[in-house]
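Complex record, two chains
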Amino acid sequence: MPLRDDVMALADDKLMSGHMQSDWTGLGPILEEDIAASAMAQDDLSHAQVLYEWLGGDPDATAFGRQAQAYRCCDLVTLPDEFDWAIATARRFMCAHFATVLLQDFAQSDDADLVDRAARLLKEQAIQTTHLNAWIFRLGTGGTDAHARMQHAFDTLSPYVGGLFETIDQAADRFDRWRAAVDPVLQSAALKIDVTGPESTTCGGRSGQHAEHFILQQAEMTQVRSLEPDAAW
Amino acid sequence: MSGAANPVQPMCPCEGEDPEKLAQFEQRIAEGVHIEPGDWMPEAYRQGMLRMAEHHANSEIIGALPEGEWITRAPSLRRKLALTAKVQDEVGHGQMLYRVSQELGKSRDDMLRDLVMGKTKYHNCFNYPAPTWGDIAMIQWLIDGAAIMNQKTLADGAYGPYVRTMNRINMEEAFHFKSGEDMVLTLMSGTKLQKQMTQDAFDRWWAVSLMFFGPHDKPGAETMPAMRWRMKIEKNDSLRQRFVNRFAPAAKDLGLIINVCAKDEHGYVTSVREDEQCVRDEATGNWGFTDPDWDEFFRVIRGNGPCNAHRLNLRRFSHEQGDWVRRAGAHGTITTPPAA
């Protein structure tokens, strides 16, 4: 069921992206951008919920109740940003464009319910990509220091980009569409990513082979709920 | 989250001010006319309003920290979304209040720098720990409840930009309070562990909530400039009594016990005894309460509370980490990036 697998992969990406970015709320570098980034983190959490609903079952149980190896989020999403806004922004930029590619395809699928959901999510996704494109450009052209920090962030994250496409259906085609979206923005900001293609041999998050940092993140995410797993919170 | 309880220091009389202009200014306030940024105002009024709005803005920014630490641990998607949105609102309140302050003559950069350098203050209540999810419920219920009570009176003030900002903030705070009320109700309807977690958190936050409104009023507070000029509308003790009248019976209805607590230097409760004064006086309708420890209040306000250093260090770290982004944002001419 490639479609269901892809929806689960994106839903888990969205959950963890929202989880990681929401942690910045109140700590962003500029008040207005703190607010905007938090709004996008909330979008991501909501998108996860919408996609979990389509997959069936209780979205909270799906989000919080699985064993770590059942999550399908990729390593790019869960890599700790070490409180570095350059890493956080570069990651969100790459993940937002990946989400757009998948949501566009979900919106063309044969499942009417998924088509409706994807169409709704794409509207918010477009706000994210527009906003993040502007920030990649602004930071990439924002002076020598900012450019170096952003290039370092893309250099740090590039090895993990292949993981976005691990287990994803039509990976080669989707990778090309993703590059077509990110490349013009990166070029406008004189930034580069060293990525040649989807890493079909990667064995990582999409296969449930998560790094230790994800295990710690999941433990933190479920810390309160696991005190009384069956209770209302 | 936080109303600027009692940041207004007694100001010196308006020496050197034009008596005619001062009389007209006070007449306008007496008539309920709003003072706007371009209007004439005594220097003491401008400084007082700046201090008040800046303190309030700082409190919103620092107030985002204790709750922000729990976003990653929120126990459901709904709570995670609500808490993120709530903390985001507080940042937005800070942004609006810094705008008000800027018009009174201080740049945002200067205000944020003074905050992280410890030159300016924020509300005392954020210097206490929030060690459990129950504390998040209590902050949203008790502290936001206290803030709404205070800020509703401030919305009757005289300085137009601050009043309009209070009205907007109060609408959002009402959502926060409802969220907190729902969290407390859910926990107190839950398991033994959840109820105990809630009672423990209530023990940590009840006295802090009483202190929220500031120390006892000095004699003649209503004739001091802060109240005469409608920067401050209601006395601390009056607000505190209204808070107790609203929340003591609500807490008891939920099954919470109102205790008088001793705390250690980390803000954790070391012993409790039920507050026997917390009963309703049938003659006045007022609920009694044991006065909080004012020595502790002044110790914390002087910077020696359980979390003063932690909160300020985190804010300073965030400010320093974001410096390059602010510099990049200010760099050169921003042109349009490629379309999405």
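Note: Chain B touches chain A through 52 residues (CB under 8 Å).
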